[in-house]
C-alpha cells in the first residue's frame, strides 16, 4: 500500500542535500505539511559522491551570505536534530600567485568582516606555521579562512531529513516523479505510487533538474560536467604530525593552479578543475540515463596529470603517497556557475532549488532562501545572483554547454571589471551591430544582447590578457575619457538594444499601476521613473513609465530584468482585468543621442518639436521611419532616447550619424555611460537598487506619493519613516589611487564598519573617483569624512550634498 499522501502544501522533487535542506527550513518556518519525493535513496545524485568541502569564501555578497549561514548551521545541526555528524572545521589557506589575486583576497576579507567573519591575509613566510608541508615558491600571499572545513555529505543530508521528519514533514524514497499537470489552482504530481496534489512545487532534482523542468514546460539552463577528485593512501609523515597537533591540516586551495588539496584521515584528497575538462550527456550518442543513482563515470586521469604534478611540487609529501581511489561523478553547472534558487520562470507556484555546483557548502543557505521564497514570496538577502529569472530565452543547450565548460575550467578565476568571457557570445545582435563593430566597439552581453562597452582605435590592445586587472587604467581608459568628454562638449550616440519593454493598455491600467508604484503615474505625453517596492518597502525594481494615453503605457526596464519584472507585473495583474499586459521587448530597440549638440543634430533629420521639455516624449519621423523621441538622458546631458522598431534602427542610425559628423558626434559605450551616470548619482539596478535596501534608505522619497490611499509597501515605509531611517544612500568622493571602489566595499568611521558602497567609478567630467553607497544615518551629513576600504587599503571619502556632482541644478540636462 502506498504511503503517498493525496495532498501537501509543498512537494519537493529531489532528495539530495539541497532538497533535504529545503524541506527542513520549510518545516522550521511552520510549513510542516510538506512532502519530499526522491526517485531512489536520499543522496543518490551528486550528494553521495561530493567531496563535502564547506568554504565561506565568495566574491559574491549574496553567495557569501548563503555559505556563511550554511557553515553556521552545520556547526550545531547534529545536536539540534540529534544525529551524528562528521563536520571538521579545519580552516583553509587559499594561495595567491599574483598581485591581482591578493587584491581579490583583500576585498573578500573586507566583505567577510562586514558579515562578522574574521578572515586574514598571510604573507608567504607566515604560511608554514599553518601548513608545515607547504612550499611557498612563487606565492604572493594567502587568504586564511578559519571557518572553512569539510562535512560528510550523507550525514548532512540525513540530519536535515531527520530534522524535517521530526517536525512533521514527510520524505518518501523510491518514488520517482513521472509527470506534472496543473488543475485549477493546484499542481498534480504523478508518480508510480499515485498522484499527490499540492499548492507549491520545488524542483530540487540536481543534475536531473532539466528533465524535471520539462514536466512544467520549463527548459532549465544547465549542463553536466564530469568532475574528478583523487584519494591518496595514508602518508606517515602527515599522520605523525596530525596526531601530535591533534587536528587536521587546513584545506589548501591553489586557486591560480586550479585545485584544492584536503587532508582525508591521514591521506589526501586532490580535486582539480581542469581546463581540458569534459561535459557529459550533451550529444545523442551520450544520452542522459534514466537513472544514474550512486554511479560514477570511468576514470580519466590523463586530464589531471598537470594538476597532480603541480600539487606534488607545492606539497611534496603528496608525492610519497599511493593513489587509492578516483571519484569521477556528474555535477551540474548553470552558465555562470551559480545555482538556481527562486521562482520557476513563467510557471505559477513553482520554484527551483537546483543546479548546484557547490551544493554541500550552499545547501544550508539555499534551504533558508528557498523557504523564504515559498512562504513569504521574498528573501531576506537580495538573491539576484541565484535567481532563475536572470536568464531568458537565449540559453539554449549549446550556450549552456559552452558556458558551463568555460566556468568549470576557470572555477577559481578572478572576475575583473573590464573582462568579458568569450564563450556563448553573439546570441542577440543589434540591427546595427556590424556598423558599430566597424567603429571599434568592444562588446559585452546584457541578457544575451551584445552592447558596446568602449570603442577602440587602431593600435589599442583589445586582448583578453589586457583586461586582467582591478585597476582603472588600461587600453580602455583614454577611450572612455574621450567618449565622456565628447558627450560633455558635443554629442555621443549609444546603441542600446535589449531594453525590456512591456505594453500596458486598457481600461483600469492607470489605476492598477498606481497601486503598484510608490509615486505618481505620469500624464499622457510624459515619462517618469517609477519605483516598485515589496511588502517590506524594499526596492524591487525601477521602471520608466511612458504614458501614451490615459490608459496606455510602455514600461521600460533593464535588459537583465526582463523576466524578473514581467513576471512580477503579471503575478499582480487581476485575473478579471480589462487591460492587457504584453512583453514587446523583441519588437523595439533604442539609441541614446546626448550632448549639447544633440538638438542641432536632430533638427537636421526630423521636424519634431525639439523645444519640448525634459521628461516628455513625441512621435517623429527620421529617414522616413517612425520613432519615439524621449527627452531623457541617463548620461545627464541634453539628450533624447530614440526608440524604434527593430527593422527601422539602421536607417535612423545612419541618418543621425551622417548629420552628426559636422557636430562632433562620436559613439560611446556602456563604460562611459556608467561613468556619466555615477556623476549624476543615478542608480543602477541590482547594485544601488536592490531588495537589500528600502525605498527610503535608497534616498528615493521624492518618488513616494504619501497622499495615495495605498500602494505596495506603503505601510512598511510609513512605519520606517515614523521610526527613522537607520541608513541612507550617499554620494562620496574618494581619494582613491589606482582602483575605484568596487561593489560592497566597506565604509569605516572611528574604527567601526558603518556602511558599504553599492557602486564606484571614475568621473571623467568631474575628475574624481566617486562611490555611491549606504551609510549609517547619523553620518550621512554633507562634508562628513569617512574611509572606504578598497582592496584592503582605506582611503579618505567625503559625503557630498544630496544633489548631482555634475550639473547639480540640471541646467544642462533641461537646456
Automatic annotation (TrEMBL):
Residue ranges of every copy of the FAD dependent oxidoreductase central domain listed in the record: 376-430
Alphabetically ordered keywords of this record: Oxidoreductase
Residue ranges of every copy of the GCVT N-terminal domain listed in the record: 432-708
InterPro entries on file: FAD-dep_OxRdtase (IPR006076), FAD/NAD-bd_sf (IPR036188), FAO_M (IPR032503), GcvT/YgfZ/DmdA (IPR028896), GcvT/YgfZ_C (IPR029043), GcvT_C (IPR013977), GCVT_N (IPR006222), TrmE/GcvT-like (IPR027266)
Oxidoreductase as UniProt keyword: yes
Database matches in Gene3D superfamilies: Aminomethyltransferase beta-barrel domains, D-Amino Acid Oxidase, subunit A, domain 2, FAD/NAD(P)-binding domain, Probable tRNA modification gtpase trme, domain 1
Record domain Aminomethyltransferase C-terminal: where: 727-805
Domain FAD dependent oxidoreductase: 9-373
Family to which the UniProt record says this protein belongs: Belongs to the GcvT family.
Protein name listed in UniProt: Dimethylglycine dehydrogenase
Organism: Sinorhizobium medicae
